[in-house]
Amino acid sequence: MLRSHLVIFTLTFFVVTPAAYSQSINEPLNSKGSIPKGADGHELNLNFEKGDLSDWTATGGAWKDQPIKGSIDQNRQFGDGRKSQHTGEFWLGGYEKHQDVPKGTLTSAPFKVTANWCSFLLGGGSHTETRVELVRNDNKEVFFKISGQNREEMQPVVVNLAAYNGKEIFIRVIDEHAGGWGHVNFDDFRVYGKRPRFKLPVLTSAPQVLLGDLYPFDNLSGEEAAKKMQVPAGFKVQLAAQEPDVMQPIAMAIDDRGRVWIAEAYAYPIRDKEGTGKDRIIILEDTNLDGVFDSRKVFIEGLNLVSGIELGFGGVYVGAAPYLMFIPDKDGNDIPDGLERKQGTVDQKSAEKIAKLITAMGIKHRDVRIEVENAVANIKGEF
To answer: CA-CA distance, 148 to 126, in Å (whole number)?
Structure first.
């Protein structure tokens, strides 16, 4: 006997709304506010919900492929566990597509201030070069600026606009930093009749401090700086060396002849492109014992991201992350073994001859990569 079966299918439709993309922790609590309007009366794209950079003028490469739709990609570099905390569907995420290297400026269309308060969301780097500015349109005066706190998660910023009511202003997002945390996250500029309240703490700009107040002796000559130093009774300060004899010093060591070896770091804190390093090691000596270094030699140059130096065991040990290098000078003639001096400079074509395995200082049972910049041979030693 045949039996019929009634099968009922239930179809469920999921509709993705902007709220599904947003992280509403940064929605204002007491008022939704409004978005400023341009000269023609249209609502400006100050929250990027048009999915593009209309009503903004971009320069440089920092804003390529912006705005970002949805939250931070958990699979991108350093993305695990990060949240953008944006509102709506789109936001400006400076790191998301091209990381920290690109620079640029993003400037909004001008708009008239019609309310006493405004807010926006900010994240990213804490550098002065990564900031958001509010600018008067008539005289281009920057009346407010703020940087992030080295966090991807955006937080609200609240600004009192009462003094600028009726005036035209514009927003400027600036990324002039290419190193770590060299980016800006920004979203959702709104205006309000009353001060808005938020669940998260409001970011505040750092107080303005004049550099002259922090560094009253800035730009003094070496002789003048020595005279300004305060030392205990019976002591005195004598200038031994100054620019240009020594530049960008980051580390030094003293040899058995009383000479000072100084590592000059021009790359720090970011490693230069391989083969383009300009760091060097110089030797300063006081030949007549009058307390002033009157002899200067360049021991080696063309190094990259040097940050440490020590002498001993027939050569010079140099820390240049991620490498630990040993530059031998067994005869102590201030010329790296295997290099030829031609007209006072190091012949870098012979640099491969100075890469040596470390056999001293207790470094054993580990892999240490020994590399000298511009060397043809990169040697891995296992100890």
So the answer is: 5
Query: Half-sphere exposure (CA, 13 Å, Cβ side) for 367?
Result: 3
Contact 112, 166 (CB under 8 A): yes
C-alpha torsion 133→134→138→141, nearest 10 = -50
Look at the alpha carbons of 12, 18, 19, 20 in this order and tell me if their dihedral is positive or negative.
positive
Measure the CA–CA gap between 64 and 84, rounded to whole angstroms: 18
Which residues of the chain fall short of a pLDDT of 70? 1-23, 206-215, 339-383
**Dihedral sign for Cα atoms in the order 263, 269, 272, 274:** positive
Q: Say which residues have a Cβ less than 8 Å from residue 166's Cβ, sequence separation at least 6.
A: 112, 113, 114
What does the alpha-carbon distance between residue 73 and residue 290 come to, in Å, rounded to a whole number? 63
Say if CB 242 and CB 294 are below 8 A apart.
Answer: no
**pTM recorded for the entire structure:** 0.53
Find tokens 């200038």 and name the residue.
Answer: 239
Residue 353 sits at φ, ψ, to 5 deg, of -75, -15
How confident is the model at residue 213, as a pLDDT? 63
Dihedral pair phi/psi, residue 211, rounded to 5°? -60, -30
Cα–Cα distance between 365 and 368 in angstroms, integer? 9
> Where in 207-332 does DSSP place strands (E)?
249-254, 260-264, 279-285, 295-303, 308-311, 315-320, 323-328
Q: In 3D, which of 199, 193, 200, 201 has the Cα closest to residue 32?
A: 193
Query: What pLDDT score does 219 carry?
Result: 73
Distances (CA, A) of 49 to 36, 57, 91, 153: 14, 16, 8, 19
Amino acid at 308: G
Whether residue 109 contacts residue 36, with contact meaning beta carbons closer than 8 Å, is answered with: no
Q: Which residue's structure tokens are 């609502």?
A: 43
pLDDT for res 206: 67
Cβ burial of 17 (10 Å; 0-12, 13-18, 19+) is exposed
Q: What is the pLDDT of residues 231-247, one digit of tens each?
A: 999 999 999 999 889 99
Q: What is the pLDDT of residue 363?
A: 38
